Amino acid sequence: MTGAVLEEEGYVYFKFQPYFDDLKRNEWKKDEQRTSHMLETYFQAEFSQLKRYPGKDKNGKYFPAIRCAKLPLDIFKKEKRTRSYYNADGRRSSTPRFYKT
Predict the structure, then answer these.
(1) For residues 51 and 68, is the Cβ–Cβ distance under 8 A?
(2) How far apart are CA 16 and CA 96, in angstroms?
(3) Does the pTM of the predicted model rise above 0.90?
């Protein structure tokens, strides 16, 4: 994703247009409307959120509020995968065992 992403109170915020432009550069075939609809449907995205990024510009003024896409942070959490190991006789084991042949 291009540009800055703001993480705040269980959500991430980002500017949709630079993100979409990056998708198009990487041969994304869907149009902007379809892409935003997919984000809403599959990832509970909300658009047109006004958000002021923290910090100040070169002149010491706070950054202006910008329109962002908002996604819940928990969709980025990876599920912990468990690995099963089996002994030579086919029984399940909690640790891997290596045998010399």
Answers:
(1) yes
(2) 46
(3) no
CA trace torsion 31, 35, 41, 44 (10° rounding): -150
In the numeric block, which tokens belong to residue 94? 């909690």
Low-confidence residues in the chain, pLDDT < 70: 1-3, 79-90, 92-101
How far is residue 64's CA from residue 87's CA, in Å, rounded to a whole number?
A: 62
